[in-house]
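Session log. Operator J.P. requested a structure for one protein chain; no other inputs attached. Running the standard single-chain path with token output.
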Amino acid sequence: MAEEEIPENLEITDELIAERRAEEPGETPEDMTSWQRPITGTIDVINMWAGKIICLLLVPLIFAMVFEVVSRKAFAVLSANDMADLARSWGLGPTLWAYDISRMSGGILFMGAAGYALMRGVHIRADFLYRNWSSKTQATVDAALYLAFYFPAMLFFFWSSYEYGLKAFGGNIFDTVGWERASDSTWAPYVGPARAFMPIGAFLLLLQGFPELFRAFHQMGKERESKFLKLLPFYFVALAAVFVTVYYPNVSPIDDWFAGIFGGSDAFSFSKPTIGLFMLAAMLFAIFVGFPISFTLIFLAFVFGTWGTSSKLTFFLMTLQTNAVMLDDQLVAVPLFTFMGIMMEQAGLMERLFRAVQLMMSRTRGALYVAVLFVSTIFAAATGIVGASVTILGIMAGKTMNRSGYNVRLAAGTITAGGTLGILIPPSIMLIVMGPVLEVPVTDLFRAAILPGIMLASLYLVYSLGRCLMDSSLGPILPVDEQPETSPYYPAEVAIVFAALFFFIWLCIKASTGALAIFPFAGLLFPIAWIGIMYAVYNWTRKVKPGGFYFSDLWYEFFMGLVPPTVLIAFALGSILAGWATPAEAAACGALGSIILSVAYKKFTTAGLYDALIKTLELSVLIMFLVAASNFFGAVFSNLGTPKMLTELLLSLDMSPIMMLILIMALIFLLGWPLEWVPIVLIIIPILVPTVLSLDLGFENEVDMLTWFAILVAVNLQTAWLSPPVALSAYFLKGVVPEWDLKDIYLGMMQFMCIQMLGLILIFIFPEIALWLPEYLSGSN
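Structure written below.
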């Protein structure tokens, strides 16, 4: 019998992580080559401490943004009630420093810990081919690509960022007179201290390459290792020669080494757009081989950028794009929403809510399907971590469904489909990343995703319950001994409770938009007062039992599992949708709220908090470093003119705009099998955007068209998560419910994949499903 899984012991935040390392930092195999062991252990420990220290930056990041929101909102409330002088005397109002502190902290967070992330094995790779190779083959390929791709890329990255960072100090780090200041903020802080983490992070990455290379040597065996070691001195001499030639051409007889090789020969004389095509083909080949994507993109951008233009321009684009990502105030929301979701999961809210909904629906066919979909929708609005949702849902529902005689295929499909809702429903990490890529406000994407997300969850529910109505054996009523005791008026209980809940959610949304500001802090007091009224009525009915009516015990568990996360989500998302707070500000408030919830539920521990900080750091580095690498790759690719050429080529085909868009959607769907959403959104989508913008689809403006396109992409990629044989959701579920056959899980997922396709078609035919709410809220604002 398989050992029962314990949720706390599972890694549920790593659906994007191919090879998370199990051993402790500094641990090395005893049979590793003797001189490699101390180097490997020492560098591992250096990067371990870099990560452990840098993850603590999340704390001041949360504080700075929460302080800004509270100070600004309190000032607005007091000023609206003729107490502006009092607000000023308390020092309230918009701050000068919070914006810069938050974005610089976010930049340091991902750049300074990039080496730590590599040490922990969390840089993403497309491993659907890689995982099928023998360990020796994997190690050999890794070693070859580290030498061919990684070390040249990281060496160029480090030196270019070092020169760029030094300029921020005016050439003299000890004289602040010449230091560069930020020109895009009122506070205008010195940028040097934050920019210094670009070369620091690049240097730590360069160092960490040696332990990774040595581990590959050890894994491939002594015979192969000896061949690599013989070539190693010649390799580093050649690498040094290339470095000197590129950065110090006066020392070398060749003016520009790459330009001399590729530009001086007719065999290598191609137009810039054609070089971009070679670059694209090399990228696809290298990704499918299985090397970490970020480093592949950086290396290829260096090589093809130098070939097509010049090394100076390429290095400038690298530093410029990396610096832009480090100071991107929208991307700060990525670590904050990730932290919020991890902390809420630690508080055990999902398990508590699931049990309550299960008991509430115990006399209904398919009650567990309802419970799974209800809880997954709520949890999707708290975090976009698919692995967390599928794993926890599998643990909670899998064995109960087996014991209750539920159909395995329908059960597996419900769990995996519900778990993928986090991709779409705000605060979706994917939408946060996609906003800057498409140059569409993240707020608009959040607004546009709500109705499609609710529509898909409803379609799942209708399908599951419809199947149960046609065949009761698919989802039997729970056994009598598992049904809770209720009053004789249970339908009235349900109606009253949900009416009270809907009114409570309405109060939260109105409060977050400022519509209840009748007196100072009324928006906070009204929802709290309503909770008090609900609690008082609950206790009164249980004590008096008027006419035999009372509220059952299960409602307390239901409220304790639902109300706190609902309050948190309603205020966070409501403030974003209303335009009252930026996504990053709302995420910071949500992060703080998740800590408060974990304390209130007596789940808070210092170790748990630190574990959440570390997990947040790992996922944030994974995403944000890939954003920087793909932006660099995309800048070089665009500079070569290839996107324009591809757009003209596609438009020359005898196809209608609708058919062209269908072709693009089909391409994204197919790429969603081998690739995760991160490389698709960051690499493939920017290539396709010029073509999409050139299509005459009848939209009044580009923002509406790109918003609609973004939702189509999100639903499309969500569909790919349910598409065998590569979909990771199946492996997450199989890991926690091992008695379910993988074939049955696949067949269950495919049912819901068809529902996803229906949802995608509906959004395609009726764009207003995505665009109505943004237009309505924009008009209201």
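Operator note: The radius of gyration is 28 Å.
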